[in-house]
Design a protein that fits this description.
alpha+beta; single chain; Trna Endonuclease, Chain: A, domain 1; 45% helix; 303 residues
Length: 303
């Protein structure tokens, strides 16, 4: 008997089947490779699908993201990207830049962050537009940073499974309508909810810092949150890998002035990540356990 799949798991599989391996998908979803392959085939994730066959897809409108069935030939021609006419109308009403507008910015030699600011977009939305429009820059250093982060988490989860445990960070990220941004983890989702509750203005991953002189290993760092009113970078960190430590050390070396603005949110005062930040001169902005104890009742809190 096959494994049961939830709509959330189906959505994650459809959105990531083209860029993650079966092994990686298995680690994220906590399912066997065989189950991943069978579900991919039944949903129509493979490129070799008969044109008249109906496949599952995810509604392109970010506030919806529901699964719908569509004839594969229509999907390939990009004539059926939404689950309903209502979602298509709502999406059309959004003021996203066109391909030509983004290309003009790229030709002007603007950085990725400058393009984000010019269109008032968060990086995650601009990534999606780069993919949708098939624009150059998908192999830029900022994309490589994201790939490194993914690889780090997959390696950690694989190690936990080999020792008899379960993946430490089942995927809790994605677009959050309550926040208006795409986050990478449940902790980040909850911290942003907490900041909203405290009426603290924030920007999520607004800037990337590249280590131009570095030729091997970690070549950049993206702090999680910027608090404009306090002039503080916030790093939300649970488990602290060697790659994470290298990022912080290189951030201090290559961007000493920005490093002075860095503070961290860790689980509590007993974990290794707290010790690392304190030893390295990074103040603790708050402890996640304290935040969760007082604010876990908030709507859209992820447990």
């Amino acid at each position: 008997m096959g494994e049961n799949w939830s709509p959330v798991e189906d959505t994650f599989l459809l959105e990531n089947a083209s860029r993650l391996s079966y092994e990686e998908l298995s680690l994220y979803l906590g399912k066997t490779d065989k189950s991943i392959r069978e579900r991919s085939f039944s949903l129509g994730c493979h490129s070799q699908v008969p044109g008249n066959q109906k496949v599952h897809r995810v509604c392109r409108y970010a506030e919806c993201r529901r699964l719908y069935r569509v004839r594969y030939s229509l999907y390939k021609k990009q004539k059926k990207l939404f689950c309903s006419q209502e979602c298509e109308d709502l999406y059309s009403a959004l003021f996203y830049p066109t391909r030509q507008e983004i290309e003009s910015k790229i030709s002007s030699d603007l950085s990725f962050e400058e393009i984000c600011k010019s269109f008032k977009l968060v990086p995650g939305v601009l990534y999606d537009l780069y993919l949708d429009y098939n624009l150059p820059g998908r192999d830029s250093s900022i994309e490589k940073i994201l790939i490194q982060d993914k690889a780090k988490e997959l390696k950690r989860n694989k190690l936990v499974k080999q020792t008899g445990g379960t993946p430490m960070n089942k995927f809790r990220g994605g677009y959050k309508p309550c926040l208006g941004v795409s986050v990478r983890s449940g902790w980040e989702n909850n911290v942003l909810l907490w900041l909203n509750e405290k009426k603290i203005k924030w920007d999520y991953e607004p800037k990337s810092f590249y280590f131009e002189e570095v030729k091997r290993g970690t070549k950049g760092y993206i702090p999680d949150i910027w608090l404009e009113g306090e002039g503080v970078w916030i790093e939300v960190k649970g488990y602290m890998s060697s790659v994470d430590k290298t990022k912080i050390k290189r951030f201090k070396k290559y961007y000493p002035e920005e490093f002075q603005k860095l503070q961290a949110i860790t689980k509590n005062d007993k974990v290794d990540s707290t010790k690392f930040f304190k030893d390295f001169g990074v103040p603790i902005y708050a402890y996640y356990d304290d935040i969760a104890e007082a604010y876990a009742h908030l709507p859209n809190w992820i447990r």
